[in-house]
Amino acid sequence: MAHTHSSLLLSNTPRIQFAPPSLSIPTLNPPSSRFSTSHPFRFIGLTSKPSINKLVCQAQKASMAAAVEVFEKEELATSLAKYVADLSNKFTAERGAFTVCLSGGSLISYLRKLLEAPYVDSLEWSKWHVFWLDERVAPKTHEDSNYKLAFDGFLSKVPIPPGNVYAINDALSAEGAADDYETCLRHLVKSNVITSSVSGFPKFDLMLLGMGPDGHVASLFPGHPLVEENKRWVAFIKDSPKPPPERITFTFPVINSSAYAALVVAGSGKADAVHSVLRGGSQNSNKLPAALVSPEGELKWFLDKGEASKL
């Protein structure tokens, strides 16, 4: 049986829940024929607040628990803040540090609720260590920089020590920046700032990923050789199909060694990719990088209604 969700994430959460067929829970009729029997999640109940339109799913694979929730945009930001805050409190209490990895795009804007009460004055920001899943090879002051996006929109507004924010060396080439960032990660594993997984890759506490309309995550694009990279921790790309062409990116072994991973998918134009990953079956979905996200611990999808419209 797939292991269950942590009560940390599910306590007091009204939900539509899916679970493995082995659970003997009375099955209600799904609210729509969209929930077909071919889907890897089985419908087992209705939320007590249908207007919230949340979906919670649990993967049938024994190695991973996965959840999918659908929100209005403001509810998404509120739920994401609580999710991140709960994990921050969990890891700072357990080991005195919280390692979180950011990507670019709209994700940063959905962290805005962490800048409000009760979180902004209660979280142990001094114990946060912030990394980038991927970064464009550009000066930190450039509009293309994911660092600039995160700094202007979030990091400059919370008291995380500057030494705990690990940006790439923007004076180096793409290859040099990737090597330098991997060297930094290896040093932090040796000094126990980042824990190590049984696979030997760094085990971050939380990966916060976005997804592109083509199903890419980080800077791992459909059909690109880097999707298959299994030795490097940090790789470089000079031919990104999405500009700018030069980037660095965490590889899938690092992404999938994490304790928790969240895919935050909102905006527009991604509904087809969401459908392909969550409903398309293994033949289609495995072609998309987002379908390959499978952390050692728990995976959670945060979707807005538009991006979930084809489920």
Describe this structure in words.
By secondary structure, the protein is an alpha/beta fold. The chain has a single domain (7-304), classed as Rossmann fold (3-Layer(aba) Sandwich), CATH 3.40.50. 22% of the residues lie in helices and 18% in strands. The protein is built from 7 helices and 14 strands. Strands 4-14-13-10-5-6 form a 6-stranded parallel beta sheet, covered by helices on one side. A 3-stranded mixed beta sheet has the order 2-1-3, with no helix packed on it. The chain starts with 6 loop residues before the first helix and ends in a 7-residue tail after the last strand. Mean pLDDT is 81; it is low at 1-64.
Would you summarize the structure shown here?
This protein is an alpha/beta fold and 311 residues long.
SSE layout and pairings?
Layout: H1 7-10, E1 16-19, E2 42-43, E3 55-56, E4 65-71, H2 73-95, E5 98-102, E6 128-132, E7 134-136, H3 146-153, H4 174-190, E8 195-196, E9 202-203, E10 206-209, E11 234-237, E12 247-250, H5 252-255, E13 260-265, H6 271-279, H7 282-285, E14 298-304
Parallel strand pairs: 1-3, 4-14, 5-6, 5-10, 10-13, 13-14
Antiparallel strand pairs: 1-2, 7-12, 8-9, 11-12
